[in-house]
Amino acid sequence: MASNTPVDHVQALQAPTTPSAPFPSPSPNPAHDPTHEEHQYLNLIRTILATGEHRPDRTGTGVKIWDGNGSREFLDSVGLSHREVGDLGPVYGFQWRHFGAEYVDAKADYSGKGVDQIAEVVRKLKENPYDRRIILSAWNPADLKKMALPPCHMFAQFYVSFCNAALPEMENGTNEDADKKQKGTLNCLLYQRSCDMGLGVPFNIASYALLTHMLAHAADLYPGTLIHTMGDAHVYLDHIAALQEQLTREPTTFPELRINRTDRGSGDMDGWAEGDFEVIGYKPHKMIKMKMSV
């Protein structure tokens, strides 16, 4: 089902997701808080379920995502029979770090080839934060036919605001020279062409929020706001029951993300490891299983 604001899609298939590590104990349903930001997501789901337009799936049957898109059967079906199983082609990470390079396979060394958009974003954030061209794009028309799946989240623009940037220091009584101590706030505007409201969108929100934190760390900025613009926002038919269950639950308090790296402001976006991140106060509800599709 889809909302009547430029959104669509139906059916889903295969591959229920399972967590790679145990979740914390499920949280009880908290009291209703209409100001909780997660209600923006939940209310859009309500709108789609209530007023959405039924549309046929792109393939009529649905396909597995990621594991299925890298399978021998799927790669052969889209004309990528020369690819090894699991090789998705020049998708997100390749475009972010090697835009314009000629893609060979997942094992090739692309060091120094193409445009490293991540490095360019950090450089501009540090050297010219008012630049209106701080862009990260995964949409490369020349490479679309080489991809197992064209990018869904495809374009992000980063914007630095220095409005009230010195307030944290001033509140602590340590700001003797506000002009020299100002630190900007990094905001991210994400455009997503195709939005699986059940599974994809929550992951995309979390992943771009994380990316914004990482970029802010590298450029010595405060992480700010994530603005998510959706094109085709859809609910797959076999997600409806699970989402109706989710709508009965009140959002819990958002956790805090803490970055433990000591190289703030270094401009380095390489070498990140799991231990560099600490999530504090994560209190999820009991897991709801849904199947993934494209």
Question: Can you describe this structure?
Answer:
With 294 residues, the protein is an alpha+beta fold. The N terminus is likely disordered. The two termini are 14 Å apart. The protein has a single domain, classed as Thymidylate synthase/dCMP hydroxymethylase domain (Thymidylate Synthase, Chain A), CATH 3.30.572.
What does the secondary structure layout of this molecule look like, with pairings?
Elements: H1 38-51, H2 72-77, H3 92-98, H4 117-127, E1 135-137, E2 153-161, H5 167-171, H6 178-181, E3 185-196, H7 200-219, E4 222-234, H8 240-246, E5 256-259, E6 277-280
Parallel strand pairs: 3-4
Antiparallel strand pairs: 1-2, 2-3, 5-6
Main sheet attributes: strand count, strand direction, barrel closure? 4 strands, mixed
Domain count: the total is 1
In CATH's first tier, which class applies? Alpha Beta
Report the structural category. Answer: alpha+beta
CATH topology: Thymidylate Synthase, Chain A
For CATH, the homologous superfamily is named as Thymidylate synthase/dCMP hydroxymethylase domain
**H/E element sequence:** HHHHEEHHEHEHEE
For the residues shown, what is the average pLDDT?
82
Gyration radius, rounded: 21 Å
Biggest sheet strand order reads 1-2-3-4
How many H/I helices?
Answer: 8
Span from first to last CA?
A: 14 Å
- The number of distinct β-strands equals 6
Keywords: Methyltransferase, Nucleotide biosynthesis, Transferase
Active site: 152
Biased composition (Pro residues): 19-31
Domain Thymidylate synthase/dCMP hydroxymethylase: 62-294
